UniProtKB/TrEMBL annotation:
It is found in: Cytoplasm. GO terms for biological process: DNA replication; protein refolding; response to heat. This is Chaperone protein DnaJ. It comes from Novosphingobium kunmingense. Zn(2+) 1 binds at residues 152, 155, 205, 208. Binds 2 Zn(2+) ions per monomer.
């Protein structure tokens, strides 16, 4: 014969525990073992039923006194006053207490008190806006056009034909919620007739057909601040989808995308460009001019002997800092270009230069070939 678990042990309480301690322990365990938190777990469902049965008994002073004196036999012999179990309802916990727990777990969709559903704000919307790097540098005013569910003007978003009104929902009695018993506990759901409003429209508006919203094209001005980058998000409060039946509108989020530039690349607040220079400029040094995004010409000094791949930097010539002060840097990647079209005279001059070379002019090349020579000698020894 199976031994039935002690109610106090099920609720993890001492037999001398007061009512507040028992209730607190039950709430904690019920939240832990509730089937909706443990879907498909048969053991969790069984634990939830047993602790609910235990609490239904111990929360009632008379039932608790009978249980303390006779144990489980008090109910097997009908000593609980004919309830068919500790709860008088087939062993389930009291609905008011379960309602408190459901509300803690799931929010106001469940709960013992009922009441109309709060107004649901309209949905937030997203708009992707592509701009040039120059626009990102200077900032701009952009006009966009979107189609959005806006408040119906004839009915002012109520959904009711002008001159008519609403009446209390017969199904939920104006509460916006209906109750249904599922197994051993009661569940509250949004009323399917009034959708939580607690009232229904007598005569739907002909313009919006009772929805309170109509699709409408909207033209909006968007301020693009200097320094924006791809992924920057601009929020226009209240410019999203209108809420149902006059509820507040959602927000519109503008996501910025920067078009590829023909000369510059963006790297945070820095601007990067590749500058090919003649090998004579690389050898002798010189100056190159780069047009900046601000319209100014930026002069860059090329030091003599600069190597291919070297980076030069002009401080404060990059992108503006978004919502801040200062600018990033202009970074120049140097590309030393070898000439491909030489005149006869130029070739003669280069041969003269080549004839005077000692190897010390290009220390990296000299060092590389010296290492090759040493490696070859080691192999042939």
């Amino acid at each position: 014969m199976a031994v039935e678990a002690d109610y106090y042990e099920l609720l993890e309480c001492e037999r001398t525990a007061d009512d507040a301690t028992i209730k607190s322990s039950y709430r904690r365990l019920a939240m832990r073992w509730h089937p909706d938190r443990n879907p498909g777990d048969a053991e969790a469902e069984h634990r939830f039923k047993t602790i609910s049965e235990a609490y239904e008994c111990l929360k009632d002073p008379q039932k608790r006194a009978a249980y303390d004196r006779f144990g489980h036999d008090a109910y097997k012999q009908g000593m609980n006053g004919g309830g068919g179990g500790p709860g008088g309802m087939g062993g389930g916990a009291g609905f008011s207490d379960l309602g408190d727990i459901f509300e803690t777990i799931f929010g106001s969709a469940f709960g013992g008190g009922g009441g109309r559903q709060q107004q649901r704000r309209g949905a937030d919307l997203r708009y992707d806006l592509e701009i040039s790097l120059d626009d990102a540098f200077h900032g701009k005013q952009a006009e966009i056009e979107i189609e959005v569910a806006a408040k119906c003007e004839p009915c002012d978003g109520s959904g009711a034909e002008p001159g008519t009104g609403t009446r209390r929902c017969n199904l939920c009695g104006g509460h916006g919620q209906v109750r249904a018993q599922q197994g051993f506990f009661m569940v509250e759901r949004t009323c399917p007739t009034c959708h939580g409003r607690g009232e229904v429209i007598e005569k739907p508006c002909r313009s919006c057909r009772g929805d309170g919203r109509v699709d409408s094209p909207q033209k909006l001005d968007v301020t693009i601040p200097p320094g924006v980058d791809t992924g920057t998000r601009i929020r226009l409060a209240g410019r999203g989808e209108a809420g149902p039946f006059g509820a507040p509108s959602g927000d519109l989020y503008i996501f910025i995308h920067i078009r590829r530039h023909s000369v510059f690349e963006r790297d945070g607040t820095n601007i990067v460009t590749r500058a090919p220079i003649a090998f004579t400029t690389a050898a002798l040094g010189g100056t190159i001019a780069i047009p900046g995004l601000d319209g100014k010409t930026i002069e860059v000094e090329i030091p003599a002997g600069i190597q291919n791949g070297k980076q030069l930097r002009k401080r404060g010539e990059g992108m503006p800092v978004l919502q801040g002060r200062g600018r990033g840097d202009l970074v120049i990647d140097i590309m030393v270009e070898t000439p491909t079209k030489l005149s006869a005279k130029q070739k003669d001059l280069l041969r003269e230069l080549q004839a005077t070379e000692t190897g010390d002019e290009c220390p990296q090349s000299k060092g590389f070939f010296n290492r090759l020579k040493e490696a070859w000698e080691d192999l042939t020894d």
